Amino acid sequence: ELAEKAKKENYLLKSSIIQFKQDFHKNQNAAGSSSLNSKGRYSSALNTSRGDCFPAEKVSASENLKIMRLEREIENLKKKNTNLEEKWNNLKEVAKKRLKEGEKLSSNSNNTHHQ
Questions:
Q1: Region annotation Disordered: residue ranges (predicted)?
Q2: How far apart are CA 6 and CA 4, in angstroms?
């Protein structure tokens, strides 16, 4: 059940990233290619002779809010995904321990039958 939940969260994470990229590229009107700057915000590389980067001025305030909301959503999904992975790993450890304990119990019961 947890594995299914982790898969679902992973899918949501990937699809929200894809949606984010599609929305961004669809809404970007500035010339040149887009790239992430040091703060993780998209900026547009205007093709100047020196190849300088200027922030995309045509991205409206509402677009910036949308981008920030999507980034927050992605961060939250990443956290959820990490938490699910941790839970999954913990469950695997518990299962391993129980299997070992079960093996010990069954080998002990075998010994008592033979005596």
A1: 28-52
A2: 5
A 10 A CB-CB count for 59 gives: 21
Q: What is the mean pLDDT of the chain?
A: 74
Segment 21-64, tens digit of pLDDT: 777 777 664 444 444 444 555 444 444 444 445 555 566 888 88
Rounded to whole angstroms, the Cα distance separating 40 from 63 reads: 15
- What are the residue boundaries of the structural domains of the chain, listed by start? 2-107
Q: Which of 60-64, 69-73, 87-91 has the lowest mean pLDDT?
A: 60-64
| Residues 89, 10: Cα–Cα separation, whole Å | 16
CA gap 59, 37 in Å, rounded: 15
Look at residue 94 and tell me whether its pLDDT is greater than 90. Answer: yes
Rounded to whole angstroms, the Cα distance separating 26 from 29 reads 8
